[in-house]
Amino acid sequence: MRALVFAMLACIAPFLTLPCSGAPAREPLPLKPFTYVEDFEEPRQMVVWATNGKQEIHFSGVTEEKAFSGKRSYKLDVTIREGAYHYFGIRLPRVPCEGELKLSGRLWVEALPQGARAGLGYNIILPPSQHSGCAAVETIDRPTPEWKAVSGDLVAAGKQTATGVIGRHTAEMDGSEVAPFLELWSVPIWATAGQRITLYVDDVRIEGRVPDADAFAAAAQERFTAARERTARRIAGWRARLDEATKALRGVPAQEGWARGSWNRRRPA
Ligand SMILES: [Ca+2]
Fold it and tell me: What is the reported pTM?
């Protein structure tokens, strides 16, 4: 019987390991210029959009204490009370991470205890899936008594997020079958309880050339639907194979000396 089970698995294994056929080649969508600039000359409020702990916020808002552009910047002064990550950020209308798109900004890190880090980052959503991923384009691990330029490529970040997250959370899809959209830019802080971090942010820019958001989402929806149908066909194939194998197993008589539940016992002498 064991040989038969192995034979059955050998039949099924190729179906389990078939490579994804991938999304069909797609026509590039036309690109339009996109510019977002946050200079904090008007009132703004960051939110803690993700954390595994608690923070005591001494100040979080626009200040005239320092400025890279204009007269104001955003000041964040917090003491970590619990947890390891604390992501502050500002939400945006979704921006396609496709074409050319760069995130840049200026950070003045006044106080950053040893072992703590801060940076400029993003959260990217991956519709039509429910998944998302966040990371920093650059991180800083010591105080910087000047306006430090930080920047990163959001198209590369979108592809990396889609490939990593979809590859990790689905069995039969790849990153090309979802649409990476920037949902917010962030100031991530990683620190331990008792550490106090003071920093200023100014001149945050998201600039480039991107496709129309609705067209980008619609194209991804088509690829996603095709991927779901492909997965459903594959699962139906596995079920049919399992049904055949189950019928074949029912027809095999039990061998003498072996009984139900004997798989973990030593074979009789
Ligand atoms: Ca400013």
Answer: 0.79
